[in-house]
Specification:
single chain, alpha+beta, 3 helices
């Protein structure tokens, strides 16, 4: 029986910034809303250390509810999403894109060998 692999979303942050703020751990989730929540929490965490212009842009993005809803719809359709925030110290780029998640073997079953 061929079953489709479940969809998941891989979330990642890249930066060329020399910031001392460590990036958050990557996230693999099956919920597009949780992917967006990861983006938002990460941006919020970074915001206090930004200069005024970058902080204003980040807050505008955080407050844009229509964009947030469009992002979730886009992820559900299987499209990736990226948010980029340029700062004087470098650029931060958050990405989320759909991946196929391999089902894990239940822990109460022993693997079968075909050797």
């Amino acid at each position: 029986m061929n079953r489709l692999l479940p969809h998941a979303y891989w979330c990642h942050l890249d930066t060329d910034s020399a910031s001392t703020t460590p990036p958050p751990d990557n996230l693999l989730t099956t919920a597009p809303g949780q992917a967006l929540a990861w983006f938002r929490a990460s941006v919020r965490r970074l915001t206090p250390g930004l200069d005024r212009d970058a902080r204003r842009r980040a807050r505008a993005w955080l407050g844009d509810r229509h964009s947030a809803e469009a992002t979730v719809r886009s992820l559900r359709r299987g499209q990736g999403y990226a948010y980029e925030l340029p700062t004087p110290d470098g650029t931060w780029r958050w990405t989320a894109y759909p991946v196929s998640a391999l089902p894990l073997l239940p822990t109460d079953q022993q693997p079968r060998s075909h050797a």
